Structure formats: structure tokens, C-alpha cells
Model the fold of this input.
Amino acid sequence: MTFRGTNIHPKPLRINQIVWNLIDLIFPPHCSGCDILGYRWCKDCETSVKKISPPFCLKCGSPEKFSYFSKDHCIDHLQSIDFIRSYAIYEPPLSNAIKKLKYQNDIGIAQVLAFYLVELYNDLNLNIDYVIPVPLGKNRIKERGYNQASLIAKPFSLAIGRPMKTQALFRYKETKSQVGLSREERSENVSGAFTVDYSNLLGKNIILIDDVTTTGSTLEACARELKNKGAKNIVGLTIARAVNTKYGFSDFVSNQEITKT
Done:
């Protein structure tokens, strides 16, 4: 596998990749984007992913051509997080891979997806102290068996050589899925949902990792709690950006299509 975004392969990362190569040898994977046998992420799906490029909102990362909001639509909405960047639009084949990771136990794809974030990280030339995945609630963890954000954050943290802190941020209030909610409903849904249980945050720069962002409400709620505990700069990185369509946000449209098939 090509380690997108980095020419250096730290030893823990190489070991992690060797383990996955052995698993793939014993249990040949299907591509998470198109289901072709023999690849976790085939070349066709790889080349189909189009990186978000300017012009986009410098605060929330939303591409201008997909934004139905005014120029300053997110200034009041996103006050704690410094900015959000996503690698690509939430659409097939990338959305297929994310849904398989979240709902079909296709955890092997997390390592492939992580290196899209490594590329973003290098583009931004960030200087950070901790990598923190957006946490799931206890019920969702019990139901799913894992946190997809943590599975993405782990190889990301190994690649950039920064520690991942999974015990710093907790979701102590169970929330319903954000899919299908408006921006206001999303903000209300995650309001007060997170708590910080880590003392060494004063003056620290943090990257929050998640799979998808739509309005940034979840990342903002996490950042608010981290800054209340003394964190300095907080950036959100996600694999995909769900955007406005005439049928609603693309994460909702995509899920509706899956339900019908």
C-alpha cells in the first residue's frame, strides 16, 4: 500500500501494515468502494476520490459551490474550533467505504482512509500535540463494537508521530444520529454531550478526528469542552464532507438510497 502523504514509515506503522497484509492474505478482502475481490481499496476507487480544492470556507471547509449559506454562515456557529478540513465530498465510492466501516465491520478500510488525513495534515503544516478521535456513546460502542473515528485516528497518529489520546474526551450523553437533522437540530443534539477527563491540556494543540462532518456541530461541541479545559488550538480533520443538495445533506441522501436498495 502507498502511504499517502508521507515518505517516512515509522516502525509501529510498518508493523501495523504487515499485520493487515497477513490478514488480507488469509482472508482476501473486497474493495470497500466497489466490492471487487482482492483489494481493500482498488485503483479505480482511489482515482475516483477527488480532493476538495479552493474555493472553500476557510472556517468550516465547505466548498463554495455546495454552500447554500452566506459567506459568513459558520462564524457564529463555530466559535471554539479553529477550523475544519475534509479530504473529499461525501459521495461514492468514498461514502460506500465509510458506511462499510461504520455499519458493516469493514475495519480494514480505516487504515486506507487514515492516509487521506495524513495528506491533509501535511498540506496544512500543522504543529500539534495530541490526536483525539471524536468519541461514541456507550450504547453505540456496544452495538458497533468499535469507534470508527478511533480506527482512523490510530494509523494517522502513527504516521505523523503524535500521541493519540482516547481517554481524554468522552461522550457521556447518548445522542441520536445526526443524519437527516438540520444544522440547528444537530447543534442541539450534541449540546452538552461531551466531557473531558484529562488534566494535561493547558496550552496544547489538538487535532480532532472524525469520519464525516456536515455542519461541524459535533466537532464544535468537542472543541468547546477541550478549550474549557485549557486547550489552545483545535483543528478538525475528517475524511469526507457531507454537502447541501436539493434533496438535503448528502449523508442523508446517501443513507436513503442505501435503505431503498
User: Anything to note?
Assistant: The chain is about 40% helix and 15% strand. The CA atoms of residues 62 and 237 lie 13 Å apart. The chain has a mean pLDDT of 83.
